[in-house]
Amino acid sequence: MEKIVSYPLSIVYYFFFLLWLVIFHPIQWICYTFFGYNAHRLSVVYLNWFLVRTTHILGTTYDLKGLENIPEKKPIIIVANHQSLYDITTILWFLRKIHPKFISKIELGKGIPSVSYNLRHGGSALIDRKNPKQALPEIKKVAELINANNYSVVIFPEGTRSKTGTPKPFASSGLKMLYKFAPDAYFLPITINNSWKMTKFGSFPLGLGNSLHFQIHPAMKISDFSFEEIFDKTEKIIANSIKQT
Predict the structure, then answer these.
(1) Predicted local distance difference test score (pLDDT) of residue 210
(2) Parallel, antiparallel, or unpaired for β 211-216 and 61-65?
(3) How many CB atoms are located within 10 Å of the residue 70 CB?
(4) Per-residue b or e along 44-64, where b marks 16 or more CB atoms closer than 10 Å to that residue's CB
(5) Sign of CA dihedral 75, 241, 236, 164
(6) Residues 92, 30: Cα–Cα separation, whole Å
(7) What is the full DSSP assignment across 115-137?
(8) Beta-carbon contacts of residue 225 (< 8 Å; ≥ 6 apart)
(9) Angstrom distance (rounded) from CA 176 to CA 109
(10) Mean pLDDT of 88-112
């Protein structure tokens, strides 16, 4: 029954989702070209407000706990499990005050209205996962950016989305580069639950009535740990809070 009801609601949702992307693409360009970084960032914030609110058409709700664990005026490396694209819009809106950037695959840097433009001009790293000579300098650049400006960067160390919520092993290479080149940063583990249920039927139709839970765990100053210690600790904290139901 849920799947049948979801067909018309998903059509309405995707109409507005694509509409916001198309509308905000020239807005982003104007903001970045004529008014600079801060204006562009605000345009992205408002875009993601619309994207998050549009999911209410599907009955989606959001529950974020642990916002008090976010360090103030510090560079932050957000480490999270990855279940769907709705992880990204949620983080961009609810964690907007810490200027989140992303470690993203290079293919997303072109062809998608608003999304590609923001990835290319908003400070994120676009990496070719098959080419370390290209990927590592990109990650180094974003690490130095957040370290110098007290911004944040989001990395999903699983490398790909979990379609069932079951966590995959974390890869260490990207985190190791961020650890090395953002020495003043904090690791901020975030566990995401139920986001995968948005796409449990695939991209169409979408899941209905889901409550997306984001648990923000206490931050860890990376200079207090060796990389091996903080990597292992971060993965265990995130994995132990994933609810596989």
Answers:
(1) 95
(2) parallel
(3) 19
(4) beebbbbbbebbebbebebee
(5) negative
(6) 20
(7) HHHHHHHSS-EEE-TT-HHHHHH
(8) 233
(9) 23
(10) 94
In 3D space, the residue among 67, 91, 63, 242 whose CA is nearest the CA of residue 154 turns out to be 91
Report the candidate in 172, 179, 176 with the shortest Cα–Cα distance to residue 220: 179
Angle between helices 2-30 and 37-54 (to 10 degrees): 170
Q: Indicate the DSSP class of residue 157.
A: T
Q: CB-side exposure of 67: number of CA atoms within 13 Å?
A: 10
77: nearest Cα among 63, 93, 91: 91
- Which pLDDT score is estimated for 2? 82
| Distance separating alpha carbons of residues 90 and 214, to the nearest angstrom | 9
Helix, strand, coil percentages for the chain (3-state, nearest 5): 55, 15, 30
Contacts within 8 Å (CB) and 24+ apart, 228-231: 230/179, 230/187, 231/170, 231/172, 231/175, 231/176, 231/179
Q: What is the pLDDT of residues 154-200, one digit of tens each?
A: 999 987 777 777 888 898 888 999 999 999 999 999 999 999 999 99
* Angle of the 227-240 helix axis to the 173-181 helix axis, nearest 10: 120
Query: What pTM was computed for the model?
Result: 0.93
Q: Which residue intervals of 151-191 are DSSP H helices?
A: 173-181
- Please tell me the distance from the alpha carbon of residue 54 to that of residue 173, in angstroms, as a whole number: 35
